[in-house]
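Researcher: I've been going back and forth with a colleague about how Threonine dehydrogenase might be arranged in three dimensions. Neither of us has a model we trust, so I'd like an independent prediction. The organism is Bosea lupini, in case that matters for your notes. Sequence below.
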Amino acid sequence: MKALVYIGPNSLVFRDEPDPVPETDEVLVRVEAVGICGSDMHAYHGFDARRPPPLILGHEAAGRIATGPRAGERVTINPLVVDPACPYAIEGRWHLSPTRQIISMPPRPGAFAELARIPLRNVTPIPEAMPIAHAALAEPVAVSWHAVRTGMQRLHQPLAACRVVVLGGGAIGLAAGLVARLFGTRDLVIGETNLQRRATVLAEGIGVYQPGEDEPGANSADLVIDAVGADATRAAACRIVRPGGVIVHVGLLPGQGGLDVRKITLQEVTLAGVYCYTPADFAQTVEALAQGRLGALGWIEQRPLNVGDQAFADIDGGRVGAAKIVLRT
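Model: Here is an independent structure prediction for Threonine dehydrogenase. You can compare it with whatever you and your colleague have in mind.
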């Protein structure tokens, strides 16, 4: 098969790789669409010890099953592979299981390839009419779905009565805004530093601001979703959130600074860390995407997998206005 392989910091090559061999409980999926995630970029820069080169990255994927009795079925992939007998899995919280693996981390190659081996329990059927690039968004949008749902559970009033601020207009931040709007918020704004991405957010009908210039006032937001996770955005979240409000921290940039622990304590601000999604979050996200409930999804850009190295370079250089690039095999 052909695959886009990470071979070292800032270096990818499109080349022949051995076809994966599925184990007893697995199928091969012929990948048709796969998104570039921020974690792929982190690995590409050589900053992720969990993803040593050479390695096939990519975990936001969809395609058709190529082996077994369900061959030909269109599916999207849940890349979190967990022992189903784990107590966390039995609770329905696969994402917290100490047994979890994710495709694109050893020992599981990723989906920047023509074929990927996936446990059968990790594929979700999709309608024939659903655009395959939209199906590849299930994984990142499920992250946002989980983040918004977690925030809602910790608020003391309905989301429709809340002011929601999202920090970051990339795929996770923009999707969080779309999910929050779907769940009923009427007062929503996203902060984004990149001019092209601000235009993308506005095109989705969501208000946007330039951080540091016209951001919401101090103590003004009921729910702040930090989809960046940098020192500066953590500080902004603490500044913007009102007393008794909620901060949901979903971004994963390096660093630990920025939190105003005194405010969090004295003003009883709830700080919730969120990671990935539950199987229920994933299933509900797929259903919403298939039904078109999150809009036209015009914020993605599609490119061929064989020029994926240029897509990485363009993202790195700030030359991409789309919130997500989806590579097509």
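Researcher: What would you highlight for our discussion?
Model: I'd start with this: Residues 143-273 form a domain with the Rossmann fold fold (CATH 3.40.50.720). After that, consider the following. The chain is about 30% helix and 25% strand.
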